[in-house]
Amino acid sequence: MKSIQDADFDSEVLKANGLVLVDFWAEWCGPCRQLLPIMEELSSEMRGKVEILKMNVDEAPSTPASFGIRSIPSLLLFKDGKLVDTKVGLNSKSVLSDWINQHA
Hints:
Blueprint lengths: L1 E2 L2 H9 L4 E7 L4 H16 L4 E7 L5 H5 L7 E6 L2 E7 L4 H11 L1
Parallel strand pairs: 1-3, 2-3
Antiparallel strand pairs: 2-4, 4-5
């Protein structure tokens, strides 16, 4: 799973083809840390179907602010550069897998 910064967002997400899931998180966020192994598993298992990226809101504050991120973890799902869905909070692997597959 790749980490991105504000400067990478345009090329990595908005200009990407297919599905891209961005996990907005922070080091101090307990639910974010709980979600990390789930996201790593999904990234590995769904390779080729979805690109999963993570963005630390403390290190890259501009992008989360531009999308109105107020709670983390926040997962934003983009398809061909357009935001198609959002999930906030800790979700199970099966919920996230089903959610991604609905948009694939």
